[in-house]
Amino acid sequence: MPDVVLYTTGWCPYCIRARRLLDGKGVAYTNIDVGENPALRAEMRARAGRNTVPQIWIGDTHVGGSDELYALERAGRLDAMLKGQEQ
């Protein structure tokens, strides 16, 4: 199973929504809170090329944000990605 990493803030509704989807699937993930840490936000910006949260990776694949995560779910592709069967 690939590692799942989320860069989030505690107050972002899109971050909460993304975590809720992953929690509902029983997915273990690393949550990196960038809310009070400029260095971690800079790390996220360097990795993603974006400044908005959440930014989500499944393995080496940058999924994007909450909307993209839910789009993968609607398309029936998220479970396979979480199992490492699709990039």
From TrEMBL:
GO MF entries: glutathione disulfide oxidoreductase activity
Show the GO cellular component annotation of the record.
cytoplasm
One Pfam annotation reads Glutaredoxin
Glutaredoxin domain segment(s): 4-63
PROSITE patterns according to UniProt: GLUTAREDOXIN_1 (PS00195), GLUTAREDOXIN_2 (PS51354)
Record CDD domains: GRX_GRXb_1_3_like (cd03418)
Kindly give the Gene3D superfamilies that the UniProt entry links to this protein: Glutaredoxin (3.40.30.10)
What PANTHER family does the entry give? GLUTAREDOXIN 2, GLUTAREDOXIN-1-RELATED
The family classification in the record reads: Belongs to the glutaredoxin family.
Name of the protein: Glutaredoxin
Say which species the protein is native to: Isoalcanivorax pacificus W11-5
Q: What is the lineage of its organism?
A: Bacteria, Pseudomonadati, Pseudomonadota, Gammaproteobacteria, Oceanospirillales
